[in-house]
Design a protein that fits this description.
By secondary structure, the protein is mainly alpha-helical. The chain has helices at 6-17, 19-25, 29-49, 62-75, 94-106, 110-135, 150-155, 157-183, 186-192, 198-223, 241-259, 262-278, 281-288, 290-312, 314-330, 342-350, 358-363, 370-375, 382-399, 412-434, 440-448, 459-472, 500-522, 524-527, 537-544, 546-566, 574-615, 631-636, 646-659, 674-679, 701-705; strands at 82-83, 86-87, 622-625, 641-643, 665-670, 685-691, 694-700.
Length: 707
């Protein structure tokens, strides 16, 4: 007998100490769900809740929502939104209602403003995890086969059990990766940490689409429970499909209350095109009980729309439906025009660092092979559904004339799902390549001539088992041969393999992307345009050292990526460099940079707003000239007269001086300029304070009348 080598001893120790613990995890669902919950809570707290309310509201849009919600709590009118004394028909009321509830619970502050967006992002991430947990290992080539007899089931029982354990482990890993990708990208982080309606719409629409898919996939399993193999890759969700469809209708109603008709138009386009492609439109619409669903949606949405139209009439219809929906789709609104390729750039930048893998994730689905998809079980359609989800939103807003980066936020979860499924196949594919090809003749001889006596116990038997285990590989690394006609469920990568050349090329692009990010961070102060609210921003950013720190993070990620590319059997860990690099960048660079920007741009306005509250006399008007910063209205909790130019403000101030002699002064928040130099003497105004580029003045009304 040959002595056991050092490598063999290491493998034996690994099998004894590590592998049993690892393999036992998927057999303990309570433990796995507990660990998954901790994972989701950790990401949710770190990315969405950490320092959420530690910076001021960001002009120009966020304070509009915050103040409109505050006005609801002040006036008691929860039907018509108001800002600065005027109606605001831009968005439906759901975001205002949630903010107003937050004000009632935790006070009027930034936390209450942003908490609905953050919780919506967390809900979307959790829903994505749940869906990938049950349907995250799929293949368009999957097929259900006949049930085996008891004899063959017993003969292949160990094999099927190992296959199930491997795929169970893969489901947990895919769900963890997918949920992280949904959260860890610039688009989601930006809109989840701002108090506007975009993240709420994305969450309502995304969870609605996932609820539809869960009902769609679960319906097939409910209709054939006896013929489904007991060794399927995962236990099925216990929630009936009818309940998922009810959740879909409820969430669609919330999406309509979050942002209007787009909340049902986009899901309708996505689901309709998906079902038409598969030839299942009538079948699925019947099982969804579409008439009942439409009635549910109408019952939840029409009351508010009816009340707001009754209160405001044609003004609301023209503003909301005409201007903010139809006109935005057919014309350029507020100068928001862009070329046809605009959203290609937005998705690439907004989904960094995962966007480099998106093309190959789409290509691996082979959506042009329609017959294969039509013949595969519903449970394998998650990737295809995500593709229609992605393409439906991308195409819709590419056609629209008005273009904004936030419009394509709802397609980010679909992109994350497709990339997560890609990595799931990469993991299984790399393991499959490492599996030695079995020798059919030897396998047949062993089956026909089984050993008559068991292996000899003792030292020799242990060494024989050790050598045999070394040749076969550890259970952690081993994967079974590709599926054959009698397989009860497929190895996902077996029919749509990812060529090594394509994956190497994508890995090289990832390496180049990380190098580009490193260079962009190093030269970012020179790339930042002039900001009148923070004219010294490039110099201060350079002095802070954040640019150098960010460049170093991405450079290290690029080096690790290059090392993994050089080691063929480590390719499946490339995603970890993106994950670790992005988390480090968020903690060490983005968070300190947000505090720096807040200190320069928003803190001066908060300080002067607080000063205005302290010294403002009853009835004293407040003007802001040269800048339109809605955050002043929110922080002063008073109406503010906004004027971009001095010449436009002077007639209004003189009119107020004539008609309202008391109080005898007016407050002006502005930047030092022509108003003071050309029209006032030093004894005709008081400089009450200054912060940043702003100053607060009190001007005598009699001086205004002498102009």
């Amino acid at each position: 007998m040959q002595p056991i080598s050092g490598v063999s001893k290491m493998k034996l120790r690994r099998n004894k100490l590590i592998t049993p613990w690892w393999l036992s995890l998927e057999k303990q669902p309570t433990l796995m769900w507990s660990l998954s919950l901790l994972w989701l809570l950790l990401i949710g707290w770190l990315i969405f809740l950490w320092n959420l309310g530690s910076t001021g509201l960001i002009d120009e849009t966020e304070p509009l929502f915050a103040e409109a919600a505050r006005q609801m709590t002040v006036t008691g009118d929860w039907i018509t939104p108001y800002f600065n004394g005027e109606t605001r028909f831009d968005k439906p009321p759901l975001i205002y209602w949630l903010m107003a509830i937050g004000y009632k619970l935790i006070g009027v502050n930034e936390w209450a403003v942003r908490l609905p967006s953050a919780l919506a992002a967390i809900a979307l991430m959790i829903f994505g995890f749940y869906t990938l947990r049950y349907y995250g290992v799929s293949s368009p080539a999957a097929r259900q086969t006949r049930r085996r007899g008891d004899a063959e089931t017993r003969r292949r029982g160990d094999t099927e059990t190992r296959r199930r354990e491997i795929l169970q482990r893969q489901l947990w890993l895919t769900a963890g990766m997918g949920s992280a990708m949904i959260a860890l990208n610039p688009q989601t982080i930006i809109w989840a940490r701002i108090g506007v309606s975009d993240m709420l719409l994305s969450s309502c629409m995304g969870t609605a689409l996932l609820a539809f898919f869960l009902g769609y996939a679960q319906k097939e399993q409910q209709t054939t429970p006896k013929t489904h193999p007991p060794t399927s890759p995962s236990p099925h969700p216990p929630i009936p499909s009818s309940n998922w469809y009810l959740a879909f209708y409820f969430l669609i109603a919330l999406a309509i209350l979050a942002k209007g008709p787009v909340g049902i138009v986009l899901p309708g386009i996505i689901i309709g095109s998906f079902l038409l492609y598969l030839g299942k439109l009538r079948e699925v619409l019947r099982e969804m009980q579409i008439v009942r669903g439409i009635l549910i949606i109408f019952a939840l949405t029409l009351p508010w729309y009816g009340l707001v139209i009754a209160a405001n009439g044609k003004a609301y219809i023209d503003s909301f439906f005409g201007y903010h929906n139809i006109q935005r789709f057919t014309e350029v609104v507020n100068g928001h025009s862009a070329p046809w390729y605009f959203y290609f750039l937005v998705v690439f930048v907004g989904f960094i660092p995962w966007s480099v893998y998106l093309p190959i994730a789409i290509a691996r689905l082979r959506f042009w092979q329609r017959q294969r998809w039509q013949s595969s079980p519903r449970s394998t359609h998650l990737g295809l559904f995500a593709l229609f989800w992605f393409a439906g939103i991308f195409g819709f807003f590419t056609i629209a004339v008005t273009k904004l980066p936030s419009y394509v936020l709802p397609l980010i979860p679909a992109a994350a799902i497709m990339v997560a499924l890609l990595w799931s196949d990469i993991f299984l594919g790399r393991r499959q390549e490492a599996e030695p090809t079995p020798n059919p003749s030897k396998e047949g001889n062993r089956r026909q001539n089984p050993p008559l006596t068991p292996p000899r116990r003792g030292t020799g038997g242990r060494r024989q088992r050790a050598r045999r285990q070394e040749a076969e590989g550890s259970p952690e690394e081993k994967i079974l041969p590709p599926e054959d006609e009698s397989s009860q469920f497929p190895i996902p990568n077996s029919q749509f393999p990812i060529p090594n050349s394509q994956f190497i090329l994508t890995g090289i692009f990832n390496f180049l992307l990380l190098l580009t990010l490193a260079g962009a961070m190093l030269y970012s102060p020179e790339l930042i345009g002039y900001d009148p609210a923070a004219p010294n921003l490039p110099e201060i950013l350079q002095q802070s050292g954040l640019t150098l720190q960010g460049s170093l993070i991405w450079w290290l990620a690029a080096v690790v990526t290059a090392l993994l590319l050089l080691k063929r059997h480590r390719w499946r860990w490339l995603w970890t460099t993106n994950f670790v690099g992005f988390v480090a960048f968020f903690i060490l660079v983005l968070t300190p940079a947000s505090f720096l920007l807040d200190e320069m741009r928003q803190q001066p306005l908060r300080e002067l707003s607080q000063l205005a509250i302290e010294i403002q006399q009853p009835g004293e008007e407040l003007f802001m000239i040269g800048f339109s910063k809605p955050s002043v209205t929110f922080y002063t909790q008073r109406p503010v007269n906004y004027f971009r130019f001095d010449e436009m403000a002077i007639p209004t101030m003189q009119q107020i001086a004539k008609t309202q002699p008391n109080p005898p002064s007016i407050l002006i928040l502005n930047r030092p300029g022509k108003l003071i130099e050309n029209h006032l003497q030093t004894d005709e105004y008081d400089k009450l304070g200054s912060a940043g580029i702003y100053q607060l003045l009190r001007i005598d009304k009699q001086a205004l009348l002498r102009w």
